[in-house]
Fold each of these.
Amino acid sequence: MDRDYNTVLFEVEDHIATVTLDREDRLNAFNQTMLEEFREIWARVRADDAIHVVVLRAAGEKAFCTGVDVTDGIDKAANVWSQDDPGRALGPKQNQVWKPVIAALHGMVAGGAFYWINEADIVISSDDATFFDPHVSYGMTSALEPIGLARRIPLGEALRWALIGLDERMSAARAREIGLVSELVPHSELWPRAKELARIIAAKPPAAIQGTVKAIWQTLDMDRDTAQAVGWNYTTIGNPIGMPAVSRERFVKPRWRLR
């Protein structure tokens, strides 16, 4: 353990930062303290070149995260025009983190949990996970989470998730079908599988990995021609940095697996 936090566990080993939401008694809901700690965590991840990849997971058996802790609440400026979206603290991409984030989901995955999921690079899940959005059931507009989600899954699925509220939960199997998660595993295999994927990525030249992540995310909302032109700039900058780390004479191709 490299640093003690109040709401998460954080450790770095073999170039992998493992971040574990640690509010099991509150179903890992986030409060103001967690927002502040994630700002610090993402700043460290971005600055520390010893960290190549992040695994994001959650403690306990019941939930990955159920959104904001409505008991503790979060701080809001008195002036409505000065209020900020809490997702700016939680999301890695909004904190300019271009090191891959692997999210390992289980149990209940609800509402504000999608601040992380929408900005994760690889999302895997245990087969017991369920996904739902409680906002409209409580008379609250669901906007920020489904806006991000609609960039990952079909629009109709994002709308159904947001509009049905607490009357329906999306199964892990359905989440896999629509591409929300890329892999399902038994609960007992979730953390080991996430770490296995992280080790594969962490072993590759970090400049190539980070350039790939940044190029894809920063061109998502561009038209195709503009995105391709910007992408060419990333290869021009990134390849001279990443390629010297690989010796073609000594390079051994890995044994691939079919997914």
Amino acid sequence: MSATTTTGARTPRARNRPAGGTLSKVPAVTAGFWAVKVLTTGMGETTSDHLARTLGPVPAVAGAAVLLAAALYAQARADRYRPSVYWFAVVMVSVFGTMAADVAHVVLGVPYALSAVAFAVVLAAVFVLWRRLEGTLDVASVRGGRREVLYWAVVMATFALGTAVGDLTAATLGWGYLPSALLFTGLIAVPALGYRLLRLPPVLAFWWAYVLTRPLGACFADWAGVSRQRGGLDLGTGPVSLVLSVVIAAAVLWLTLQARGTTRTDT
């Protein structure tokens, strides 16, 4: 589904160029976008768990915060959407967002139900602020400045919210990781079908699906990584993180080559 309405066919480059000629700093919403997004959510979940266990919570959070700051700085400096820069920022948001939700639960003792509600309130507040200040939540309009700051605030909140919701269903409610993953697979089809069949507003459909990608990817990754006693495949969070990192890197390389080919064609 696209976050923008269209009146006719658009080239790949045009999809990333909002009205006014300025290039968007986020990718066009395609099947490839959704695939990489789900992969980053799973990778962020298992990487966060692995680093917290091997390095300790404090060093892991501190290191992730530094890398996140560097990633967002590089994204802010970019003059347009650059796949490697953008997706590295998303990966670091995924890792740090997972840690934020886990720290609230494990260190501070906040129940996942409460943290999920809190993150949902934060997300809603940022959406309201973004809409009030900019007049649109369309991601194709993200070209830098205040709008980009609001965009990444929303992305961060969706990752933290999704982590809390996924752990709530899988652990607190005891449904398990695979059943939870299948639940979110069904739920994410709702905005897709609503957009295709019921004329659900595209921006609403996009953000609805975007929020659900987090618990979807995280639950599948946890199911692969955790022990059999916890209902998983016991592949280990480290190996799962490594495999997902390689797949993401390959996908981003493909997107980079595709973007370069499109640029040469358009010029």
Amino acid sequence: MAIATTNPATGQTIETFQPHDSAEVARRITEAADAAVALRDTTFAQRAQWMHAAADILEADVEQAAAMITVEMGKPIAQSRAEVLKCAKNMRFYADNAETFLAAESLADPSAVAASTAGTVWQPLGVVLAVMPWNYPLWQVIRFAAPALMAGNTGLLKHASNVPQSAIYLDGLFEKGGFPAGSFRTLLIGSAEVAAVIEDPRVKAVTLTGSEPAGRSVAAIAGDKLKKAVLELGGSDPFIVLPSADLDAAATVAVKARISNNGQSCIAGKRFIVHTDIYDEFVAKFVAKMGALVVGDPMDEATDVGPLATRSGRDEVAELVTDAVDKGAEVLTGATVPELPGWYYSPTVLAGLTDDMRIVMEETFGPVASVYRVADRNEAVRVANQTTFGLSSAVWSRDEAEQQWFIDRLEAGAVFINGMTVSYPELPFGGIKDSGYGRELAAAGIQEFCNLKTIWKA
């Protein structure tokens, strides 16, 4: 894929960028390595000052940055603004909390280990490579970069090739806030060049948000070099609705959970698992709301669903739907390609799914919902856990005992009760199974790329 901004609403290429050659990549790695030496000797207070300044710059750029996101990957403009502001919030969160999250700890009774004092300290690893996707062009990067820099690490970014303007914007953001030159550098390279960067001895760790195949590749390279990796991969999140649920609220939130970001979110509700007693009522409400969504120009404030980010992504969604329909799935709404320029797909709800359909096991990265009728909670949890993914989940029930039953049994990195999955700076985020390993956000996110060093004194 060329490194280019192509507007998915029109299919028109706006600008093409020259990839960095090997000499420029080496220069940028050197910059990051030199900055890591300087940054680890700065105080939390100094880094917090710089991070707050960078957050202020980003917030002041909200309209420009939001338009950039929408043009590059097609999300509705209001959602792009929300992404920019969420990034600024995350930056301030880590500016204010990093020192507490990485505070040294002393053993209450050092004599138990024959010491006068003993405990632990957190120290930065150095240069960390981030391989990031296009679906949240700023947020996915900032949720790594803010804690990494506040810990005293530096960052290298290999962004998706269809969001180069976002990547270039991020390249200068932290330096504008006051961080040492080289603290965060973008590498305009293709996927084939990633292995060499991971293998560079100056790069100490890698984090990737992306597809399962990409995660396996990065994990293998990092593992061969015994380097730390954090992987946030795909998801096929269950959204379970039970008889005690508030069905109006559940249906409203279900639509938002499915079509936010034009349905291109790892943590989107994708499989809607509904108890038979309320199946017909819930599905009727859900389908009516999905069918009423406004599809169109993402720069229009009235648009609910914009285009998918790439032609290939739109085609993959269409192929999954076609495969299901050819094998007997029922189309409750949608399943069409709108007559619009660009890469649109209509909000879709499918029922009558069977295990031979690809959509049952594969992640659907677009505005397509699958609904399942289940007889009881045991069948609900079986369907929820049947995929190889385990990112997040949602359960709608007003019965506290039932809520806990699902919390104990769902194979996922998170369970949201009577809501939809949202990533918050205050809560750790990540998955299990083929959804990856490691955590981002909260205290866990900043500690992932630090060395927990034990200190013992006689």
